[in-house]
Structure formats: structure tokens, C-alpha cells
Amino acid sequence: MEKYIMSLDQGTTSSRAILFDKRGNIAAIAQEEFPQYYPKPGWVEHDAQEIWYSQRSVAEKAIAAAGVGPWQIEAIGITNQRETSIVWDKETGEPVYHAIVWQCRRTAPVIDGLDPEFCQYIKDTTGLVPDPYFSATKIQWILNHVEGARARALEGKLLFGTVDTWLIWKLTGGKVFVTDYTNASRTMLFDIHKLCWDEKILDYFDIPASMLAQVKPSSCVYGETLAEYFGAPIKIAGAAGDQQAALFGQCCFEPGSVKNTYGTGCFLLMNTGKTPVKSHHGLVTTIGASCSDSVEYALEGSVFVAGACIQWLRDELMMIESSAISEAVAREVEDTGGVYIVPAFTGLGAPYWDSHARGMAVGMTRGTGRGHFVRAALESIAYQTYDVLKAMEKDTGSCLKSLKVDGGAAANSLLMQFQADILNVHVQKPACLETTALGAAYLAGLAVGYWTDKEEIKANWKLARSFEPSMDRDKAEKKLKGWERAVRCALVWSRED
Ligand SMILES: Nc1ncnc2c1ncn2[C@@H]1O[C@H](COP(=O)(O)OP(=O)(O)O)[C@@H](O)[C@H]1O
Ligand SMILES: O=P(O)(O)OC[C@H](O)CO
């Protein structure tokens, strides 16, 4: 009887469950979008219970779609949107506030007020650039603004978790309170060198250590699901932040290997092995997923808005009916006609780190139409990737020849071709674009012996299509100059407010 690994991929806009077989093929998949809440400009929230219900529901649907029994699922691997912060009551299991999402900018004033010496301490200890993006100031905000929360936290009655911790806690009926190294490294509270929560940072943000989960490797058995959920207990044996899971799922096991994931945001990660590489060009140092007890590190360029810009065209501007149609609409025109969109809807992440920057569209003329606008939105994704990739090359002294890609927007061939042209590298798209979920499956499967080692996993990676650079370099450079000017506009706009 064939056995499977089930991945629970809890993303920013949807929850997914996927059953993988030994060859890394998808046996069944279920996906549900869930509501996004924008209570004020720049604020983004989720309902943690809606996250849980949607995740549980897709897991049940995927198992049913595969027509398998729970005993055929050897283990569950969890991967999640990172940094998003949930605080809940230990006794009742009720969240005390909505989950504050990684994109949320509400704590920008706290970050603006940090003194430079402490900022340096945060960088040295956590590897991160102080920013509202990370969990620390989100937890502090909840404790400061929810009535009674600080007192209850001090009495040890509240727990904090990123989404992995929340889901594992729910799946085990409140028995297991853990996170993994990759997720811990995104909180801005974790010492990535000593591998422990940092007391000085906790004190500064006034966060009681009793709220924090035990930190474990990404590949190990954390516990079992309650039997009532899937008909029998299933081991939970892998957990990793979605970007680190994608790096693992792309088999970027060797130092120097790089992937870029095009989802809501865009995240370029390079495996740097046992060495944490410090960035001097606006990237962050983070912990990578590994299947041993000792950690590996990665260098990351985090772009906040990528596919989300295409969703914005769909949902807010109603310019396109679906994200997928963006490719056909962009192909209606030869180029953007000089239009640039800088989708700084939630500020700009790497390498600019400006929480106050806001979206900008420039270069429009009376002849600008839908095709130009959609094309400019797609191109903005490739330009943002160019910015972080150049920063990575400067930090590591490397010159990238090829780039492995994945994520929802990697399905867009116009975007992938433009990416190859702008970067002047080979863009390699694997057969399985669900690399994030696959990475979590690999981590769980390795922990329970479903796969024996990384070599076995590597054999599963298959190239679907390679995009070769074909644009004249002068033309590409000219386009890049335009992008630089457009970004300058977005930055100046915020500074003059
Ligand atoms: N063909 C496409 N062209 C451009 N963008 C796309 C396409 N398909 C999906 N997207 C974008 O990709 C994102 C979804 O990708 P996904 O990897 O599921 O993201 P996440 O895990 O962040 O929820 C959405 O923002 C969507 O707009
Ligand atoms: O949900 P995604 O795939 O856009 O990923 C979000 C990132 O984890 C944020 O750091």
C-alpha cells in the first residue's frame, strides 16, 4: 500500500494541503483562500481561527481527494507564512487579537524610534534589519494595546507563536508548544549564533520569555495530531518558514545555491552553509532549514509585494479577471510604453528598507492602456528581484549564472522571460512549482525515514523549462535606469511627507 507525506502550506493568501509520493509527485492537493483584513491604511491582519479552520479543512479535502486512509500518511510537514504573529490564551485557546501579518506596517514608529546602537545589536544578534516586518514589535503592540494582555502575559497565561507554532499547538490539542529554527530566526528575538531567545531584546520590547515556544530543528518529530482530526494520529515531523522550505524543496543544499519564490512577495535566498554571512547591502541573514541538529544559514532578499501587485490589479483596480490572465493581457502590447509601477504598498523591503515608501506609477501618457499597466506590474517583480540579486552578488562576491524559480507567479512565462533578460541569467523552472510544500514534505519525510537522505531527494528535481536571456544588454540597462528613477520617486514621496 503506497504511503505519502502530507504538507500543510499555510501561505499569506491561502491554505494548501498537498500529498506527495516518494518521487515528489503530487498525489492530491486542496487549497482555500481566506479573508484578509485591512483595518487601517498600511495595516494587515488575519483571523488565526480562520487560518486554522481553512488549514484543517484543506487537509481533510486532500486526504479525501487522494482516497487514502490516515495510516497511509507517514508524516505531516508544516510550512508557513513567516513573521505573522499570533498571541493566544493558554487555557481557552482563544487568540487575544487578530494575527498581525508580516506585511503590516503599524509598528513603523517603534522602529523609527530605536537608537542606532540598539539597531546594531539587533543586526548582530538576529541577523535582521530592524523593521516592522518581523514579529518583535507586533507582539509588543498586542501586549500594549489589547486590554489586560500584558498582565495576563506576565502571569504566564498567554502564548505567542508564528503560524507553525499555532498550527502544531492546534493539531496536537494544545499539547505541543514548539517552533523551528527557521521560524524563530524571523521574530527579531532570536540569537541566530547562540540559538536561543535573546534576553536583552526581550527586555527591550517587554516580552515575557514565558510566552515563547521551545525551538527545535526543522526536521524532527514534534508530536502527533489528535486522532479525531484525520481518523488516526499522524506524526508531525517537519516545520519550516515557507522561504526556507522552498530553498530545501529546490534542493539548494550546497553553499552558493540560490532560489527565488514568486508568491505574494518575492524571496531570494542563497544557502551559505555553516557560515552566517553578514550583509552590507541591505539583505538579512537567516537560518536555513536543515535535516541535522546543527543549523545552516542563508542570505535573504525579501521583497514585500510581487504577486500581490497582480492581485491588486484584479481585486482593487478590477483591471484583470484573474492573476493568470495577466500574461495574455501583457502580451497585447510590446512593452510598457515607458510606464513603471513601484508596488511599495507596504513600504519597501530589501535592499531599501523604507517602511514609509508608498506605491508609485510613473511614465503614463494619454496612450497608456491596460496592457501597458499590467505589463509594468509584472516587470516590477523582475526589477525588484534584480535589486536583491545584485545586493547578494556584492555581499558574496559571486556572479550568478542561473536562478531556480518557483511560486504561483513563476507560472507566468512572460515574467520569467523578462526576468532572464533583466538579470542576464538562465531562469530554471522545475516541474513541481509547489516547492515550498515539497520542502516541508522532505523535512518531515527525512525525519521518519520515508526518504533516506538528500541524495535520494535530489533525484526528484526535474527541470520543466529554462528561460534564456535574449534582450540586448543596452536595452536592458536602459530599462533598469528607468526603474532606478521610479524607485527614487517612491522614496522621495515618502520622505517629503
Ligand atoms: N500566472 C500568474 N501571473 C502572475 N501572477 C500570478 C500568476 N498566478 C498566480 N500569481 C500570483 O501569485 C500569487 C500566489 O502565489 P502563491 O505561491 O500561491 O502565493 P502565497 O504562498 O504567497 O499565497 C498571487 O499573488 C497571484 O497574484
Ligand atoms: O506567503 P508567502 O509565500 O508570500 O510568504 C510570505 C513570507 O514568508 C513572508 O516572510
From TrEMBL:
<feature type="binding site">
    <location>
        <position position="133"/>
    </location>
    <ligand>
        <name>glycerol</name>
    </ligand>
</feature>
<dbReference type="GO" id="GO:0005829">
    <property type="term" value="C:cytosol"/>
</dbReference>
<dbReference type="InterPro" id="IPR018483">
    <property type="entry name" value="Carb_kinase_FGGY_CS"/>
</dbReference>
<keyword id="KW-0547">Nucleotide-binding</keyword>
<feature type="domain" description="Carbohydrate kinase FGGY N-terminal">
    <location>
        <begin position="4"/>
        <end position="249"/>
    </location>
</feature>
<comment type="function">
    <text>Key enzyme in the regulation of glycerol uptake and metabolism. Catalyzes the phosphorylation of glycerol to yield sn-glycerol 3-phosphate.</text>
</comment>
<feature type="binding site">
    <location>
        <position position="12"/>
    </location>
    <ligand>
        <name>ATP</name>
    </ligand>
</feature>
<feature type="binding site">
    <location>
        <position position="408"/>
    </location>
    <ligand>
        <name>ADP</name>
    </ligand>
</feature>
<dbReference type="GO" id="GO:0006072">
    <property type="term" value="P:glycerol-3-phosphate metabolic process"/>
</dbReference>
<comment type="pathway">
    <text>Polyol metabolism; glycerol degradation via glycerol kinase pathway; sn-glycerol 3-phosphate from glycerol: step 1/1.</text>
</comment>
<dbReference type="InterPro" id="IPR043129">
    <property type="entry name" value="ATPase_NBD"/>
</dbReference>
<feature type="binding site">
    <location>
        <position position="83"/>
    </location>
    <ligand>
        <name>glycerol</name>
    </ligand>
</feature>
<dbReference type="GO" id="GO:0005524">
    <property type="term" value="F:ATP binding"/>
</dbReference>
<feature type="binding site">
    <location>
        <position position="307"/>
    </location>
    <ligand>
        <name>ATP</name>
    </ligand>
</feature>
<feature type="binding site">
    <location>
        <position position="307"/>
    </location>
    <ligand>
        <name>ADP</name>
    </ligand>
</feature>
<feature type="binding site">
    <location>
        <position position="243"/>
    </location>
    <ligand>
        <name>glycerol</name>
    </ligand>
</feature>
<feature type="binding site">
    <location>
        <position position="82"/>
    </location>
    <ligand>
        <name>glycerol</name>
    </ligand>
</feature>
<comment type="subunit">
    <text>Homotetramer and homodimer (in equilibrium).</text>
</comment>
<feature type="domain" description="Carbohydrate kinase FGGY C-terminal">
    <location>
        <begin position="259"/>
        <end position="447"/>
    </location>
</feature>
<feature type="binding site">
    <location>
        <position position="12"/>
    </location>
    <ligand>
        <name>ADP</name>
    </ligand>
</feature>
<dbReference type="GO" id="GO:0019563">
    <property type="term" value="P:glycerol catabolic process"/>
</dbReference>
<feature type="binding site">
    <location>
        <position position="264"/>
    </location>
    <ligand>
        <name>ADP</name>
    </ligand>
</feature>
<dbReference type="InterPro" id="IPR018484">
    <property type="entry name" value="FGGY_N"/>
</dbReference>
<keyword id="KW-0067">ATP-binding</keyword>
<feature type="binding site">
    <location>
        <position position="242"/>
    </location>
    <ligand>
        <name>sn-glycerol 3-phosphate</name>
    </ligand>
</feature>
<keyword id="KW-0319">Glycerol metabolism</keyword>
<dbReference type="GO" id="GO:0004370">
    <property type="term" value="F:glycerol kinase activity"/>
</dbReference>
<feature type="binding site">
    <location>
        <position position="311"/>
    </location>
    <ligand>
        <name>ATP</name>
    </ligand>
</feature>
<dbReference type="InterPro" id="IPR000577">
    <property type="entry name" value="Carb_kinase_FGGY"/>
</dbReference>
<feature type="binding site">
    <location>
        <position position="412"/>
    </location>
    <ligand>
        <name>ADP</name>
    </ligand>
</feature>
<feature type="binding site">
    <location>
        <position position="12"/>
    </location>
    <ligand>
        <name>sn-glycerol 3-phosphate</name>
    </ligand>
</feature>
<dbReference type="InterPro" id="IPR018485">
    <property type="entry name" value="FGGY_C"/>
</dbReference>
<keyword id="KW-0808">Transferase</keyword>
<feature type="binding site">
    <location>
        <position position="242"/>
    </location>
    <ligand>
        <name>glycerol</name>
    </ligand>
</feature>
<feature type="binding site">
    <location>
        <position position="408"/>
    </location>
    <ligand>
        <name>ATP</name>
    </ligand>
</feature>
<feature type="binding site">
    <location>
        <position position="264"/>
    </location>
    <ligand>
        <name>ATP</name>
    </ligand>
</feature>
<comment type="similarity">
    <text>Belongs to the FGGY kinase family.</text>
</comment>
<feature type="binding site">
    <location>
        <position position="14"/>
    </location>
    <ligand>
        <name>ATP</name>
    </ligand>
</feature>
<feature type="binding site">
    <location>
        <position position="16"/>
    </location>
    <ligand>
        <name>ADP</name>
    </ligand>
</feature>
<protein>
    <recommendedName>
        <fullName>Glycerol kinase</fullName>
        <ecNumber>2.7.1.30</ecNumber>
    </recommendedName>
</protein>
<dbReference type="Pfam" id="PF02782">
    <property type="entry name" value="FGGY_C"/>
</dbReference>
<keyword id="KW-0418">Kinase</keyword>
